[in-house]
Amino acid sequence: MEEKLFNSELKVMDVLWREGEATAKHIAQVLSDEVGWNVNTTYTLIKRCIKKGAIERSEPNFTCRPLIKKEEIQRLETDELVNKVYDGSVDKLFTALLGRKKLSEDQIKRLWAIVEENEEK
Amino acid sequence: MSILEMSFYGSMMILAVLLFRVPLLNRLPKRTFTALWSIAAIRLILPFPVYSPFSLYGLLSLPDTPSESNGSAFTYTGLYEVTASNDLGINTASETVCADTYTPCFSSSVWLYIWLFGAAAMALTFLLLYFRSKREFKASLPVDNERINALAGGLRLRRKLRIRHSDRISSPLAYGVLRPVILLPSSYLTNSEEKEIEFVLIHEFVHICRFDAVKKLFCITALCLHWFNPLVWLMFFLFNRDMELACDEGVLRHMGEEFKTQYAAALIKAEARKSGLDPLFSAFAFKKGAAAEERIKAIMKTKTHTLVSAALSAILICGSATVFASSPAENTDNTAAAPITSAAQIAVEDNGEGQIGKLTVIEKNVNYDENLERYKPFGLEEDENGILYYKGKRVRFFSDCTEIEEGMEISGFNYIDEAGEVDIHTVYEETPNGDGSSNPFGKLVGIEEYKPDEVNFPAMLSPEVVSEGGATVAFIGEGEFEIIEGTEGAYAEGDGSQGGMTLEEKFAQYKDYGITYDENNDALYYNGKIVGYFIDLTSTGVFTKTFEVPEGEEGIAVKTLYDDSGKLCGIEEITGTEISFDLVETFSYNDIEITNV
Asked: How far is B154 from chain A (nearest CA, A)?
């Protein structure tokens, strides 16, 4: 998957990430309740996701399956954020995050754990 | 009204607004100019004239746009059964197809197609842009942010207003007429201060309140129809710009003048983020440097407007509309008698020796309402009393007629109104009937005025009188004719029955002008010269007499002269070569006799 997913498309993916697999009809139903989109709009977005390689369509019933995991997207977005806004430096992002609010001890411990984990890689 | 006419009136209005805009833009409420532009746009779209006694065009006696009206595509059916001269058989005109009022009335139909193509291309482009944008906007997400929704709650609107966000736009905008939506870029949700959001919301709110989207729609429609007119393009740019200026003014009015600087700062900040769909929606920031400057300047110069300026702008708006956007109308004086109309049938028959022209009145005071539609595109209008107007001027004589030979016109339908001032007639293009003959009433291509002396009006006035008598005239060869048949009251050649008068009595009428009749020798003299041919051509009849001239002498030919009121005023000699020419010339529609059925 090369192209970036827009907010609206991410919303569609969100439904699939929550429910695993779903028919297009079902997705449309859910989104109609959640964000007020009509069926056509949702279908258009689903088709765009398919084109971008984020969703796989299978018959019968126009069943949709996510081809990309939520975590992957998160990683991609973070990478982009780091590169675009924090000059490619994870440290800077880290500092910004730390500076924002007070972390609890638990959170700090967990953070260190992650750092170590990554250092080993 | 034709497109050219609409463009003309619209352009005049645009020029007027431009004239006022330069000095007054910062002195009057900006809404004045959006109102003026709206009037101009509406003027450009409406296909019919709106009359007012104060119209500039009437006051200046400006010539109306020339209607070389040719080339609109419709044919006519009618009362007419015409047999074409010289040839073959009877044919009836074909089916009526009504032309669209937006006929450009250019000089040929090539221009019509060019215009259509341009208009269609424009319309298609805008439609495409619109639907593409609409699709994107539909995929926007609702705003959950408490702060923002609280601010939005403060905006009172009769219609339901929604706030949504999208990461596909770079500048806030408003769309939708029945269910308006303010669309914010997603970054605004996290990345902006409270005041900024407030400015944005109020700005878009003002756009929505004023139905700016509708105004833009009118503007775009006008542009599609008048894509060839550079003034309309200018109006398009200025209208949009003025709408933004008026909107800024509205925001500051709502929030208070003291926020001028902050508002300007917010605008500059938002300048970097732009949306690519501006023609159709009211975006927050602006594109070009000059427009930006004008806007910031205008914001900083904003001051509350006094009652005086409000009053002034009202006067300006009403005044401009009546003066520039309306068409002149005559003062209708309805004391004159109802117009006389008649429908007639023409037949040109070949009797073996030549053609006979016969005009028969088949119905008086015809209701020609259903026919009026055909004439409308060429400037003919009817008011509620049945009075006809040609381009605003009251019609005196209108003849639906066509020329079948040079100087020879046949008339199907006459309208007479004594109180009128302009004499007009139809212009037809002869069309082939497919069987070799052609229909002189084939295609209506225009309505034109008669030249000043062409219509002998007083003679038109009493078809009743005319119908008491008449004659059938035969045309033999070029322009020569003789009467072959007379009905009661008519004058016929040589048989002595000149409406009950003897020849002596008849010629006594011309005594004062040098005519003497020698009854004993059946000879006629004009100022002592012997006359070989005498013709008295009037609207009520034609009287001719050929005299035998003694051998060795040459007789002259003489004709009668009538003044404008139809009174005999002289006798004149005509030369041999003149005879045909003269007769062809004078024997026009108003001199053909009408025989009563």
From this structure: 22
